[in-house]
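Problem 12. The chain below contains 378 residues. Write out its predicted structure in token notation.
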Amino acid sequence: MKKAIKKVLVVNSGSSSLKYQLFDMTTETRLAKGLVERIGAGGPANHAEALKQVVADLGHPKDIDAIGHRVLHGAEVFKDSVKVDAKVLAKLDKLVKFGPLHMPANIGGIRACQQIFKGVPNVAVFDTAFHQTMPDCAAMYAIDPKYYKKMGIRKYGFHGTSHKFVTQAAAAFLKKPVDKVNLVTCHLGNGSSLAAIKGGQVVDTTMGLTPLAGLVMGTRCGDIDAAAVLAIMEAEKKTPAEMDKLLNKQSGLQALSGVPGGDCRDIVAKAEKGDKGAELALEMLGYRTALYIGAYNTIIGGADAIIMTGGIGENSSEARERIIGRLGALGIKLDKKVNAKTRGVVAVLSTKDSKIPVVVLPTNEELMIAKDTVKVLG
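Solution.
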């Protein structure tokens, strides 16, 4: 008989940090959480050293049954979570090109866990996996197909673990089977994406080959005419690496508002004082999100609910008002009193006579990773 998976350690290895949470999966409760920072920059030398700190923090745990890892990119190789062995690691190494910043850290975290927690199974849970049900008409780009065949250039989508979690949570909230639920899920944070969910599966999502496409985000520009990128590169003699930095790290809400990092709370405070750049940033955030909600509602044939999650979706009443206020054509009206007081809790933000409910559902990507880990090993 297989040993029951009770305690699951969830590891999220970033380029210079390692976040972890420990779950008791018999009750799906969190036992511990922590963060190790400055890996390779004055702190631990590498992820193996960081994990030794985690072991010390947890009191040298002997009863961890499995480890689940957040992995950025599964491309088309991994369409679901998978138990890691030597063959899987070899395939992951080949996918580094899809995420040169995150993937080496994700893989480094897995290798370190194999070294520190000998004999404990590791499971890779991919940010891209939940989106693999997209049809070609949504996933492919209208360029010469040779670039897809040679380089894998297509839309993959991200935040999949969060979209999956809130899809399951929304089905339970609406008392519908997951395979019968139609949703527009809005993961709104410093990085933001929407997913069109039809029958519990993704049929479209706003992020693309990388997390750069779609919505206006904290420091990412979102959708932009490719010719504008070429024009800037030519005029300012920028290299691809410099242009990548401009679009990913120096654009979005930060560029429009002048607020470092594009933190929505600071932008709201600035807008309330009459700052025009901050006001424009919030209006663009609201406009672009509403635009995609309307489109996705059409694609799925009418949503059972619009779901708000992520740091902004769960907590920013101001941002939500600017989005929901634009959805009148869908028969949606905002309950301003409920919206004003809702922070990080389950709540219906729309009025009772709205045609489609707008629901705040806090995401829990770490618990979803733990659940997937149990499912894969179970």
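Discussion. Residues 176-365 form a domain with the Nucleotidyltransferase; domain 5 fold (CATH 3.30.420.40). Students who got a different answer should revisit the alignment rule from Section 12.3.
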